[in-house]
Amino acid sequence: MKNTLLLTVYILLFVGCQTTKSQNQEIEQRIDMLLKQMTIEEKVGQMNQYNGFWNVTGPAPEGGSAEKKYEHLRKGWVGSMLSVRGVKEVRAVQKIAVEETRLGIPLIIGFDVIHGYKTLSPIPLAEAASWDLEAIKKSAETAAAEASASGINWTFGPMVDISRDARWGRVMEGAGEDPFLGSKVAEARVKGFQGDDLSAVNTIAACAKHFAAYGFSESGKEYNTVDIGTSTLHNIVLPPFKAAVDAGVKTLMNSFNEINGIPSTGSSYLQRDILKDAWHFDGFVVSDWGSLNEMITWGYAKDTREAAKITVTAGSDMDMEGYVYIEELAQLVKDGVIKEYLLDDAVRRILRVKFELGLFDNPYKYCDEAREKETIGNPKNHEAVLDMAKKSIVLLKNKNHLLPLKKEGQKIALIGTLAADKNSPLGSWRIAADDNTAVSVLEGMQHYKGNILTYAKGADVTTEKAEFVHEVKINTTDKSGFAEALAVAKQSDVVVMVLGENGFQTGEARSRTNLLLPGVQQELLEEVYKVNPNIVLVLNNGRPLAINWADEHIPTIVEAWQLGTETGNAVAQVLYGDYNPSGKLPMTFPRNVGQVPIYYNYKNTGRPTNKDNNVFWSHYTDVEKTPLYPFGYGLSYTTFEYSNLKLEGNSFKIGDDINVSVTLKNTGKVTGKEVVQLYIRDLYASITRPVKELKGFELVELKAGETKTIHFTLNNKTLGFYDNDGKYIVEPGDFKVFVGGSSIASLEADFTLN
Ligand code: BGC
Fold first, then answer.
1. What global pTM score does this model have?
2. Is 729 exposed, middle or buried (0-12, 13-18, 19+ CB in 10 A)?
3. Which residues line the pocket of ligand 1, CB cutoff 6 A?
4. Given Cys at both, which of 200, 287, 513, 743 links 600, Cβ 3.0 to 4.6 Å?
5. Tell me: the pLDDT tens digits for 251-303?
6. Per-residue CA distances from 537 to 131, 398, 413 (Å)
């Protein structure tokens, strides 16, 4: 019986593989046929992407106009549009492409579905703090369901840029500082967006961005130069992109930065040698907004003609709102400067994704008004983002057990403009979400009726209304609300203060040189503390902040990021203990901005400690060199104890599986979840290795008093590293294994690899 079953499974698998193979063959044949019919201009058209609305994420290029875009659409000179949204609008542009052009090739419709479409999940950095890969995948699925119901079939996400620099505003959009966690999250997001079947009506093509090293912009300044060594490139920057490619991501976006003197958009090394040749990526690469033109301002191309030549040769397949390909490519081919096969390669890649999405079979498949109405804002989506929001919260400190709050008989002061803000929690990437649609913390806490809740603003964060395209430069100095806040705090048992950044103070082009609480919020915190020290500080922010004073004085600190549409409900449920927090930081929190870049997987240096008791060791003279909160750190309303770290032996051969186990006990009084983290250290190698590297984690739920043995396996996939040529190697040598609830993981064991 068993054998018959197995045989059936094999036959099905075989038939399945054959079908996919023949489907792929059919797609390639259909592409061949199309390519034969296409003029050079039509081929260039497929490589041309226009934005639907002006000034969405960048300046409108000179000479560009809506009329010209429509004219090009009608000629079949546009392969994709971005930021057109809503069934009606998408249908209108698709209709032109399909019904009015000579070949009727459908458009692929792109949109920045970064952490949800209309119903927003937490910002991606916050989601990564959950370390819950299933939940992260589910969040991307929900986002894909809403976006696809609105006519969209391609998202510009996930952003998989690793960053160690909290000054960079876009850290909110990634998964933090670690390539292992970053790779797992990248995979989960790609699978969530694309599902098992890209041609299904509720899945969309994903786009891993920004290729590459954008997160290493010098001094955290947006769009800045990147100059990093090959070891960092191969071991830190590239792994999440590789993971996305391995997970089947259909597209990549290149980046605004130059890397070691070459703008990424024009880098053959990145796009041809690594991505398309070494990794066998068969999808396409879209440029970032106008980044082809920016090669001129970088000083890498003389003019748009040269920019087009460089980028098409380097493997940038589609020009996002840059007008470079559409204006230059056809002539370059006709002049014999570039060969037509470069266009054929790019167009084949673009058409392949369109075929895989099923757009050729039904170009209007994402244009169903009834589905749009039913899906967008569906209560199920709210449930999903609420679940994700609770999982993303990190408890940083809970001295005196101020949390969970008592549900009855308490006078609670709620202070801070962000506590009542229904806009800021949506973050800065929320193009399709309506303003002021988040549940505020105030509204969330009002659901708990057993206490007396009094709200006082205290102080604004900024002087002006923050918006997507406008810069918020001025943090307020107005302290006129302090008196009311102090009066309310004085009369209360507990003060909940919601402080942090406005949602538009992080994100693209929102770099900061100061990581303190903006405006007069720090002063407000200190003043309130003088009248009532029973403070629960709830942070709303899109990056690690330097909150040294708060850590020293405030008994309870909760990192609540920008949690999206259901923010207030998630925060209230955690504060009241209806949800036990289990998030862990995906990025190190510094003591002050001068420590940045600060990250857990640093190299040891030749003088790591002050063993000789003199000044000549690697440290600062004015602040400890350790972070305020390390990577992987986060508390719970219960406590966990780690013991019994065991390896099956202490000497292994390269290629062996090395089994590691550890015992985890919930030593507190309530059920809780813990992210068990495993790190290694390769003690000596042909290229120096970090003091710790995350190589495994598991999210474990235990009832009070419960004990569980957790198993990990180390092998060639996790014990090696990339050499300076980008070759993955595993070397013999001595290793340490650490296990614990943060990167400080203190249980230790040793083994040798022969
Ligand atoms: C951003 C990309 C984004 C694109 C389209 C650019 O400014 O860097 O991440 O996908 O705009 O909106």
1. 0.96
2. middle
3. 57-58, 82, 112, 156, 209, 288-289, 508
4. 743
5. 999 999 999 999 999 999 999 999 999 999 999 999 999 999 999 999 999 99
6. 23, 10, 12
